[in-house]
Design a protein that fits this description.
This protein is an alpha+beta fold. It folds into 2 domains: 3-342, FAD/NAD(P)-binding domain, CATH 3.50.50; 402-547, Glutaredoxin (3-Layer(aba) Sandwich). The longest helix has 24 residues, at 330-353. Residues 536-549 have low confidence and may be disordered. Bound molecules: flavin-adenine dinucleotide. Residues 14-20, 37-40, 47-51, 110, 134-135, 167-169, 173, 193, 268, 287-288, 295, 298-302, 304 line the site of flavin-adenine dinucleotide (FAD).
Length: 549
C-alpha cells in the first residue's frame, strides 16, 4: 500500500448521502476547508426516502438550495389509512399550515435531492468532493484526525483533518472502528420497495393498507412517480419477490393488468436503533451512522438533516474562533433524545400500518373511527400534532426565558414578512446563515438597537424587528431590518411583551430576555459557548472576547 498524496483539511466528511451532503453545503457556505468522500461513483440510485418535512426544507433554505430542491418536490400531502386494498378508509392525516415556512409533509425522491445537494457543492471553493474514494481506517490524537483513503485506482491518500464526521450510513465503518454499539429496540422488518414512473393516478395522498395479511404503503411522488412498499413474510426470499412475475402479482391489486413502469426495486431490512455514543473526541457520528429509523414516520433522512444543521453551525463557530471546542459537547445532548423520540414515533405508527393480526387491525380501525368523533383528538391526528417537536432542554440554549407561548430551546417559526416596499420575504431570508436578534412587538417599549453587549457583534447577529400586523407605519431603526407580520402568524404565539430573542443559525431560540436582563442573558450564553470575557459596547466600542483554549 503506497501513500501518494497527503491533504490537510479542517473537516473530513465520510459519506455523501443526504446527511454528509447537507453538512458539506453548510461548511462550504461558511468557507470552511472541507473534504467529502464517498465510496460510490456518484449519489444514490436506489429507491430510498420519499417524504421530506418542513424542518429539512428549512435547512435546504439555509444552504440556499430550497428553490432547486422544491423543483422536485410536491408540497403538502397527507396519509389515508385503509383496511385493505379496495377497503374502507378509516383514518386521515392531512396537516395544513406552514409554521416553519414550508408544508409539514412533502413528497420527493432521495436520488433527485442528493443530485441537487451535490451540484450545490460546486459553489464553494473551500470544498472538495471525491467519489470512488473509500475510508479504510483512521486514528486521532489531541491535534487532529489522520485518515487513510483509497481512490478508484487503488492509490492511498492520507488526509489530516481537525474533525472527522461519519455520515457513512447504517453500516458505518467509522462507528465500527470506534467500537460503538447500536442500542434500542430489537425491531426489524423486511420490505420490498418498488419505484414506478409514468403513473397517471391523480390521487394525491399516501395510501396505507393496514392489512395484517400484507401491509402495503403507496406513496405518490413528483414527476408522475409512485412508490409501493410491501411488508415481506419471513419465508419470502429476495429473489422470489424481486422476480418480474411476482412483482406484477403484488402490484395487481393496485394497478390491475395495466402496464406498470418499474424504475427501481430492492428489499430493505429496517431497524430501530441509536448509537450509544455520537462522538469520540474529534470524530462525530451523524445521520444513519448514529440512528436507524423504521420508515413509517418518514423521518430517517429528516433526522440526519437535523444532525447536519445542528453540528454544522457548531463546527463553523469553533473553526472560525467564535466558540470554544467545549460547545461541541452539545451536539449529542441536543440531538440524541429527539432522534430517539422519532424512532419511537415510527415504531408506534408501524403498529398501525402493519398490524400483527387481523383482530388487532380491526381494533385499530375501530379506535380511529371513535377518534374521528372527537374534534380535538381528530385534529391531533389530522394536523400531525403527534410528531415530536424539536425542543432542547439542555445544550446551547438558556433554560429560562419565555415570550408568550414560546420558550428557549424551541425552533422559531418562519412567517412570511413584508418589508417597507411591500415585498414579501420568508424570515430566514432576512437572517441569512448566522445568528439573529429578533424583536417582535412595539419598538417603543424597548429598542433593539440599544442592545449593547459585545457578544451580539462577536456572533455577527443580524438585528430584525418584526412589527405586528396592526402597526400602520414602519420606523427606520439604525442597524436593524424592519419587517411586518401582516398575516399575524406570530401574534398568538409571542404575545405583546416585545422581548428580545437570540436565534441560533439552526433557527432555535437560544435566549429570550428584556433590556434589564441583557447582561445576564449574554453572560450565561458566553459561558455555554465557552467565551471567557466580553466587554460591553457601552464602555468599549470594540468588544474584546477571548476563548478558552
Ligand atoms: C425504502 C426506504 C424509504 C425511506 N423513506 C424515508 C422517508 O420517506 N423519509 C426519510 O426521512 N427517510 C427515509 N428513509 C431513510 C433514509 O433513506 C436514510 O435515513 C438516509 O439515506 C440516511 O442518510 P445518510 O446520509 O445518513 O446515510 P446514507 O444515505 O446511507 O449515506 C451513507 C453514504 O456513506 C457512504 N460510505 C459508507 N461507508 C463508506 C466508506 N468507508 N468510505 C466512503 N464512503 C462510505 C455510502 O456509499 C453512502 O453513500 C428511507 C429509507 C429507505 C431504505
Amino acid at each position: 500500500m503506497t501513500t501518494l498524496n497527503s491533504i490537510n483539511t479542517d473537516v473530513l466528511i465520510i459519506g455523501a448521502g443526504p446527511t454528509g451532503l447537507t453538512l458539506a453545503n453548510l461548511l462550504g457556505q461558511a468557507g470552511v476547508d472541507t473534504l467529502i468522500i464517498d465510496r460510490k461513483p456518484g449519489t444514490v440510485t436506489e429507491p430510498r426516502a420519499v417524504s421530506i418535512d418542513d424542518e429539512s426544507l428549512r435547512t435546504m433554505q439555509a444552504i440556499g438550495l430550497h428553490q432547486a430542491v422544491l423543483r422536485d418536490v410536491v408540497p403538502g400531502y397527507g396519509v389515508h389509512y385503509f383496511t385493505r386494498p379496495g377497503g374502507r378508509c378509516f383514518g386521515k392525516v392531512e396537516p395544513t399550515g406552514k409554521l416553519y415556512g414550508f408544508p409539514k409533509r412533502n413528497a420527493f425522491r432521495q436520488p433527485l435531492l442528493e443530485g441537487t445537494l451535490k451540484a450545490g457543492l460546486e459553489r464553494f471553493a473551500s470544498l472538495t468532493a471525491r467519489f470512488n474514494h473509500v475510508l479504510l481506517e483512521f486514528s486521532q490524537d489531541h491535534q487532529g484526525v489522520r485518515a487513510l483513503i483509497r481512490d478508484a485506482e487503488g492509490q492511498i491518500l492520507e488526509v489530516n483533518a481537525a474533525y472527522l464526521v461519519a455520515c457513512d450510513g447504517g453500516r458505518s465503518t467509522v462507528r465500527k472502528q470506534l467500537g460503538i454499539e447500536m442500542v434500542g429496540s430489537s425491531f426489524s422488518s423486511r420490505w420490498l420497495v418498488v419505484d414506478t414512473d409514468r403513473d397517471d393516478d391523480p390521487f394525491w395522498q399516501t395510501r396505507v393498507y393496514c392489512d395484517a395479511r400484507r401491509p402495503v404503503v403507496e406513496v405518490p411522488g413528483p414527476h408522475h412517480t409512485r412508490r409501493f412498499e410491501f411488508l415481506l413474510k419471513p419465508d419470502e426470499t429476495d429473489e422470489q419477490v424481486l422476480s418480474e412475475t411476482r412483482l406484477r402479482e403484488l402490484l395487481r391489486p393496485f394497478r390491475g393488468n395495466a402496464p406498470v413502469s418499474i424504475v427501481r426495486k430492492t428489499v430493505y431490512t429496517f431497524h430501530a436503533r441509536v448509537a450509544e455514543r455520537w462522538r469520540v473526541d474529534r470524530v462525530f457520528l451523524a445521520g444513519d451512522a448514529a440512528h436507524l429509523t423504521p420508515p413509517y414516520a418518514g423521518q430517517g433522512m429528516n433526522s440526519g438533516v437535523r444532525d447536519a444543521h445542528n453540528l454544522g453551525w457548531k463546527l463553523i463557530g469553533v473553526l472560525k474562533g467564535k466558540m470554544a471546542e467545549s460547545a461541541l459537547r452539545s451536539y449529542e445532548s441536543e440531538r440524541r433524545d429527539h432522534a430517539w423520540a422519532l424512532i419511537k414515533l415510527a415504531l408506534n405508527l408501524g403498529m398501525v400500518m402493519a398490524p400483527a393480526t387481523v383482530l388487532r387491525a380491526r381494533l385499530i380501525s375501530t379506535a380511529f373511527a371513535l377518534v374521528g368523533l372527537l374534534p380535538p383528538l381528530r385534529d391531533y391526528f389530522l394536523q400531525m400534532r403527534f410528531k415530536p417537536k424539536p425542543r432542547f432542554t439542555k445544550g446551547l440554549v438558556l433554560t429560562e426565558g419565555e415570550a408568550g407561548k414560546l420558550s428557549c430551546g424551541q425552533m422559531f417559526p418562519q412567517p412570511m414578512l413584508t418589508d417597507s416596499h411591500g415585498h414579501e420575504h420568508l424570515l430566514d431570508e432576512a437572517i441569512g446563515a448566522g445568528f439573529a436578534l429578533i424583536q417582535y412587538g412595539d419598538p417603543t417599549r424597548q429598542r433593539l438597537d440599544e442592545l449593547q453587549h459585545g457578544l451580539w457583534s462577536h456572533l455577527d447577529a443580524k438585528r430584525i424587528l418584526i412589527l405586528p400586523e396592526h402597526v400602520k407605519s414602519m420606523p427606520s431603526i439604525p442597524g436593524c431590518t424592519v419587517l411586518q407580520d401582516r398575516a399575524g402568524l406570530l401574534k398568538g404565539m409571542l404575545g405583546d411583551s416585545s422581548k428580545f430573542l437570540l436565534l441560533r443559525p439552526d433557527r432555535y431560540v437560544a435566549a429570550i430576555f428584556d433590556k434589564a436582563g441583557e447582561t445576564s442573558a449574554a453572560e450565561s450564553l458566553q459561558a455555554l459557548l465557552g467565551i471567557v470575557s466580553a466587554r460591553n459596547h457601552a464602555t468599549e466600542h470594540h468588544a474584546s472576547l477571548s476563548l478558552t483554549p
